[in-house]
Amino acid sequence: AIGWVWAASYTACVLVQSTVLAIIAVLCFSFDVHLFARGLMLYLQTSSKGTSKPLFDVDICTGRVWFNDLGIDIALPHATNGRYPRSADFARYQLWRQNGVSKALQQLNSYMVLGAHTIRFRRALQPFEAFEIRSRVLGWDRSNFYVEQRFVSKDGFVRAIMYAKQSVVKASTQDVLQLINHANPSPVLPARIHHWLQFIEEDSAMLRREAGLS
Question: By C-alpha distance, which of 136, 131, 139, 140 is closest to 149?
Answer without folding.
Answer: 136
